[in-house]
Amino acid sequence: MKPSREISDDGRFVRQPNHFTDPLGPPEPGRYRLYASYACPWAQRVLIVRALLGLEDLLDVTIVDPIRDEKGWRVPGGDPEYLSELYHATDPGYTGRYTVPCVWDTRDKRIVTNDFPRITLDLETSWGTEPDLYPERLRPDIDIMNDRLYHGLNNAVYEAGFARDQQAYEEAVARVFSTLDFLEVRLAESEHLFDTLTDSDVRLYTTLARFDAVYYAHFKCSVRRLTDYPALWAYARRLHAIPAFGETTDFDQIKRHYYVTQTNINPTRIVPVGPELDWRL
Q1: Which residue intervals define the domain GST N-terminal in the entry (predicted)?
Q2: Which residues of the chain have pLDDT under 70?
Q3: Structural domain boundaries of the chain?
């Protein structure tokens, strides 16, 4: 599936803005439904936070099929058949990509938000506070870290993978590995990015979990593997050992989504075997 509408004239990938950005209202059992994919790093963030905060009874979830086609994400055995139907029910004129995560309001019959950076913060500040993933004393520092992670790693791997210009690709790759180098030094001295588990750790983990399986080869981020960074690799495995992280990490769905869906990068749709990694501590 080609993100041609998100490629600039100079061959750079420019992610579309999030279209639905209302804040989540107060929790009401049965009212809100999260649509997510185990394959998508942005959606996995919300699944992790939902589990960490114990919000399973307050926020229902539907997991979409990992293979996305031109109609968008399919809802297995569900009503609607495709996530796109909810987008058009909310905004009949919508023309962008149909993205996960998004939150559907079953009472008002509309998508409240597909604003992935904001969804986790809303859950952390308005729906559950134990553990406190966005503590007030750290919020300015978390915001700075999250911005650095997004531009240097979370989104930069996509900028490398979807680039259609050599310079654009090389600039994105340089940002990826300068960020990983920075994180390796930081995590050599600390169990988490800060002195406690925070929203930033969630955002970093979902990219690390996909790095060797997908981004290293598929997105051509091939300078070094995650396993070549001792501190980062140990950190990723520590987080993976926490059920909220490990139980929402499905490497089969991750690989099938990227290698089968993104035919502009992998036209054969062949899913590679491996890598053989032991994520156990």
Answers
A1: 39-125
A2: 1-4
A3: 136-243
